[in-house]
Amino acid sequence: MTAVRTSGEVSRQTHEDPAASGPARASMQSPAATRAHPAAAMLEPALRTLADGVRSGRRRDLAKAITLVESSRQDDEWRASALLQALQPHTGTSFRIGISGAPGAGKSTFIEALGLFLTSRGHKVAVLAVDPSSTISGGSILGDKTRMERLARDPAAFIRPSPSGGTLGGVARKTREALAVCEAAGYDVVIVETVGVGQSETAVAAMTDFFVLLTLPNAGDDLQAIKRGIVELTDLVLVNKADLDRNAAELARAQVASAFSMLRSRDAWWKPPALTLSAATGEGLAAFWDVAERFRAAAAGNGALAARRRAQALAAMHAELDRALRARFERHPAVRREFDAVARAVTEGTMTPGSAVARLLALAGGG
Ligand SMILES: Nc1nc2c(ncn2[C@@H]2O[C@H](COP(=O)(O)OP(=O)(O)OP(=O)(O)O)[C@@H](O)[C@H]2O)c(=O)[nH]1
Ligand SMILES: [Mg+2]
Q1: Is the pTM of this model over 0.90?
Q2: Which of 76, 82, 129, 216 could form a disulfide with 193 if both were Cys (CB 3.0 to 4.6 A apart)?
């Protein structure tokens, strides 16, 4: 059966890395900087025990560590930060795969099938999610465990629903940190699922090595994705549910492949392939994994993987800086006192947004 075909190609062109020069690179790569981190030096005994538990792959400690990382209690924040710093030398070891697609495309079915396929080959697989809608609904795309029942029972797999509450940035950060904890626990494949809501795909692409878009044999879907700019993030497209109508799936695959050949891809050396898949029957799974491994080997070989991760780490630091500065700013007593009045003046049109910010900054700076 040849329902699966690939149009991907790897060239030898080396990858350009804007983050690979200057002082940022030097400091990020210095082991001394890691050792000197005060948080690592001051790891309290309970956290040391937790870190050791994570490292030895104890599921309960892994779950506990992720709960700590996800906690929004202010006094948990430094403990989470110290724990992550202690685990840092043991991270970066997994193949990080992002999976996106419209509701009902078959993401969960695919992830369960892929997870089982991988654990049967000796991999340890963690599944995480970024679902910004869980903030509103309180639910979560992975909350419905019935959809991954078999994988959830697999001792070589670990499934964690999306953190809920807070902004997309907050949810994404917690998932990124949970991913690092899973790596330290020895999971060598981490899959992050997201629905096509808002900027969640961008957030997941920003924490993974390989970003996969699941579509259905339906041109409207693909056009939607192209419109939303998802294509620029995508490393591979899977046309799912090929078992329902093989010809339609193959036609859609060919359309996606030709659309991609005309667009600028995420990386010059990799032309995103399009494959057909049946997550339900498992047909196309092995071919998918072949391409994924081919991507990984090529990206590791030409430096693109390291470059992507460096750029991601730097972007995460900037995002975290924005968040922390904002939080510190909002805690400032003078700002808290005046904020509502200044905001009201802006909404009433008596103060420009610019002068409102200048006023608040002056209050926070004490000037
Ligand atoms: N025939 C067929 N059905 C499939 C296939 N993959 C998934 N489905 C079905 O499609 C429906 C949706 O699948 P899910 O895996 O829940 O889709 P999802 O993308 O995770 O959906 P959300 O989490 O709601 O965004 C389920 O009824 C699946 O059984 C497939 O390859 N073939
Ligand atoms: Mg799902």
Answers
A1: no
A2: 129
